[in-house]
Amino acid sequence: MKINPDKCVACGNCTYVCPVGAIYVDPVIKRATVDRNECVECYACYNGLSTERLNPVLVRTVRRLFQMARLRFDPEPDICPTSAFEPEDLQWPRVVRRAFSDPRATHESTGVQGRGTEEVKTNDVTQRVKRGEVGFTIEFGRPGVGVWFRDIQKMTQALAKANVPFEKKNPLTLLMSDVSTGALREDILDEKILSAIVEIKVPIERTEEIIHLVHEVEKEIDSVVALGVGTRCDDNGEENVVSPILQRLGYKLVRAKTNTGLGRITNRLEEPSNADAPIL
Amino acid sequence: MTNTLHRYGNEESFYDDYVVFASPSKGKNDEGSIPKLKKFLEMALPFKPVNVGDPAHGGALRPSRNQTIASHWIRDDQPDFRAVIDGIDEPASVSAVFDNLQTAEKFLKTVKEADLGLCINISTSIANAQKCCRFAGIAPHSIGYSLGFEGKTEKLPNTQILALTTMCGHGMVSSSLAKKMIDWVKEGRRTPEEAVVYLTRFCSCGIFNPSRAKRILEAARTKME
Questions:
Q1: Is residue A117 over pLDDT 80?
Q2: Do A119 and B55 touch (CB under 8 A)?
Q3: Which of A130, A143, A159, B8 shows a CA-CA span of 20 to 30 A to B155?
Q4: Is A120 in Cβ contact with B172 (below 8 Å)?
Q5: Among residues B101, B111, B90, which one has the least CA distance to residue B41?
Q6: Domains of chain A, with CATH numbers?
Q7: Whole-angstrom Cα distance, residue B77 to residue B93?
Q8: Which pLDDT tens digit goes with each residue over A212-233?
Q9: Is the pTM of this model over 0.80?
Q10: Are B30 and B146 in contact (CB under 8 A)?
Q11: Is B26 or B70 the better-scoring residue by pLDDT?
Q12: DSSP result, chain A
């Protein structure tokens, strides 16, 4: 993301709306400026700020007069008065910042907007997490801290070493150069993103082991981690298998996402092609 | 949609927070899902949601590209639910946010009776979800627990700011803006109602709960954590 210095009037509104604090008013040029190293290309500034098309020279003059008179200028806080934000044509590898940070950017690999796949929210039709299994979403960088891929790799490598399979359709898995070692592509390691989710699935018996592993690795990661644990309910809609394990580990379970099971497979089944037919 | 899962707060703080969302799954129930997604939100309207949204276009309060200088004094602060429904043009999760148990229960029951075939989830406290499902006669299929935030939690802001910003799980509501709005409410520069509108516009999928945010801002006016 760039801020056009010819348009910017240094009102400072955008410095507050950046989730990672990457925008500041440069005292030398007296214009809002994006710290490209810290910017995660989330587009919160471009998509979230309302815009006007006021004359920058006029606005600067008015602001200067107010400042001289020590009068407080009290504009709406969510407006860029001169439409100064200009998206860049992002190239690889910087483009992965946007793919993982801007919720409206679609991961071409999965066709899913956002950072993960569909985890348990569509489990009633995908049956991705079956009885006896537990799905983990290990999310980095949220809220508003951000994370570097080189830090995420510490977790993926530790999980791979523990023989934990990664969710195939997850965008992070698709960025691995070697899924067996959890190594991410070398050329993205120095890219920072707003957040990303590692998705794994293991037998319930490994729940405690995985949580301990995550605890150990997160000590080496310069960001925050949000853990989500998904599992199947029994026929009565109760879940009394995983929750006792989590409570024993000291977690106070407060919030959850509950899949009601109302989903059905409604797509037409594809006709098997001749190529798939058995050879007689 | 882990973006609804990790909202910050204790169990009591979710008494006015219920996100019900409908999701089509690629290759399973996404064909012909757009009219069903629209119907899902249409069905929500009589129950007076506090927000509705779709991730491609946003929630009921959105930023505008065509503001004029007059917008600093006269601005449309009313949520436009109809624009959200009319704007759905691709299969993606859509959500309706409610601020009380009774309407969430009734809406979930209505959704069950409509039998849309879409995947329906409710995100709130575990106890609240159980009440809603019981009321609607639903035996849940799966559950995703939030274990909260770990790691370098010293990088997180205070709990009031966290309660506000985590209502946009995509992280589009920044800590700095939330802090600024708390300060403005404390200073009397804006009312909680006005401050909430600014925050809500940044949530890009419409799951931000303006009703809960207003309560948090009102509390922060006198008790800063």
A1: no
A2: no
A3: A159
A4: no
A5: B111
A6: 2-86 (3.30.70.20), 109-248 (3.90.1170)
A7: 25
A8: 999 999 999 999 999 999 999 9
A9: yes
A10: no
A11: B26
A12: -EE-TTT-----HHHHH-TT--EEEETTTTEEEE-TTT-----HHHHHSEE----HHHHHHHHHHHHHTTPPP---TTEETT--EE-----TTTHHHHHHH-TTSBPTTT--BSSS--GGGGHHHH--S-TTEEEEEEEESTTTT-EEHHHHHHHHHHHHHTTPPBPTTSHHHHTEEETTTTEEPGGGTT-EES-EEEEEEEEGGGHHHHHHHHHHHHTTSSSEEEEEEEEE--TTS---SHHHHHHHTT----EEEEE-S-----SPPPPPPGGGSPP-
Compute CA B56 distance to the chain's CA centroid, rounded to the nearest angstrom: 15
Task: Give the total number of structural domains in chain B.
Answer: 1
- Helix (H/G/I), strand (E/B), else coil: B149: strand
Mean of per-residue pLDDT scores for chain A: 92
CB contact under 8 A, A258 and B153: no
pLDDT in tens, B20-47: 999 999 999 999 999 999 999 999 999 9
Dist. CA B205–CA A166, nearest whole Å: 27
Is A109 near chain B, with CB under 8 Å?
Answer: no
Higher confidence at residue A111 or residue B46? Answer: B46
DSSP code of B155? G
The most confident of the ranges A169-183, A260-274, B64-78 is: A169-183
**A157: contact with B, CB 8 A cutoff:** no
Please state the rounded mean pLDDT for residues B98-103.
Answer: 98
Tokens 């490598």 sit at which residue?
A157
Partner residue facing A19 (CB), from B9, B75, B171: B171
Does any CB of chain B come closer than 8 Å to the CB of residue A210? no
Q: What is the mean pLDDT of chain B?
A: 95
CB within 8 Å of chain B, chain A residues 125-154: 125-126, 129, 135, 137, 139, 141-145
Confidence of residue A73 (pLDDT cuts 50, 70, 90): confident
Interchain contact, B65 vs A49, CB within 8 Å:
no
Smallest Cβ–Cβ distance between B143 and the set A47, A51, A233 belongs to A233
Min Cα–Cα distance to chain B from A163, Å: 23
Residue B13's domain comprises 2-143+152-222
A130, closest residue in chain B (CA to CA) = B142
In this predicted structure, what is the pLDDT of residue A275?
41
Tell me if chain A has a CB within 8 Å of the CB of B95: no
